[in-house]
What does this fold into?
Amino acid sequence: MAAETNSEQADDVVARRVDVVEKLTAGPRRSADLVGSLGLSRSTVYNALHELESHQLVRSIDGGYELTLAGRLLYDEHRRHRQAVEDIYVPRKLLAHLPVDTDITLGVLEGAETVFAERYAPIRPVAVVERIVREATALKGLGPVVLPDYVDLFYEQFVNDELEAELIFEVPSWEYLVADYPEAITNALDSGNLTVWVTPETLPMGLLLVEEPHALVGIVVYDDDGNPRGILTTETERAYEWGHQMWKQFRPRTTREITSGADLLPDDSAASAGT
It folds into this structure.
């Protein structure tokens, strides 16, 4: 009779004996076959099978071994857990720059691609932003930081009628844009392809929520000095729904809407002159 065990022990056994369990997911195997395919000693394989059998995770059949239903289910759960750990661990350096209460769930990180800024390639994330914006025809976004490359990129897309966007900026970012790029901002707004909202709140991250030609989410992470540290991109439905809710969360908190160059006067001109 199998020994009584608790769930923590069973989980630990699967984690430690995962190589053996994984081989058995393909079907029954003889212990000699496991020794040869895993490159382990006979005693190691025997001990692994014996331990798994004692937890009723494998059973012996016709001189071989197969997973039980419990064994297969625990292995599947173990694999999902390991993938979840990987999805969190890979972008950990980016997550460290976000407030601990940032509303990002595991579902947003699942399957996401991560590009980091490196000392030898500090603009890698900007290159990803450029690719996303050039391929998009409609998007929403959050802009806590303005880089000169962003201004040139978005301006070109707007005036060439290649992109429609609704962007939310922090007050300092918007005032910087108006002060340093007044002509570009006016022309972009007058193209009819840009709507801007301004919020007094701090935006925790940059967000690109591409609506067309296909759904895509880009999360741009900056350090305290406004330097891009990296970008996460994903096309999953869960991530897109999260991005849409994130944008909708900040939209009601904006204090101004700007849809044309005429909307820049007089408030923004005053801000520009005082900068």
